[in-house]
Amino acid sequence: MLVVVVGAILIGCISGFENDLNGTINKIHLTVYAETQCSDTTHFFRKHLLPTHKTLGNHIMLKVIPFGKASCTYDEDDFKCSCQHGKNECDLNILQNCILYQITDPIQYLPLIYCIQGKRNYEVAVRECLDEIEEQVADGIIACGKGKKGRRLLYIAGKKTASLSPLLNFVPWVTINHQRQSSFTYSLEKEICKQLNITAEPCSKYIA
Question: Is this model's pTM higher than 0.85 or not?
């Protein structure tokens, strides 16, 4: 039931927001470079990303890149990867990448990605996090997660992570409009409000 409850909460992001003078909604690019068994990443999702997406989701163009401090190589028409917290983390990172490949709407994928965070292994994650979604979609994600396609997606996530400047040295690595500041990790809503220069709720509380 976790997926359903969180998903319902996130739908609340589609509410009224302050528009710019042209009548269009101001937006920022938010990218989160994550790891599934990193406690700091899980904390960031729970305390910052999910609540902020609920209040400011219409202003956020979100990307989640599950890879972190992993490494992947192309080997004999396949991909071999190792992850900071071991094989189970690689399996879970792959599963998240498969979800992100199959489901592009953050309102739909964020609850699934968060549910997988911190899970012990792939089997537990599949059992506890995919049971509430459409069977055909779940089957596609599971097949991806156990096959070459999933390993390729993890490899691609690694390429995106390796292209960062400066290089990633902390997880989660959070960028707004392709720039990184440590404050983004600890006060995400406030920093997005500053970037957007919004004075209405929920940003009014940050006005000096």
Answer: yes
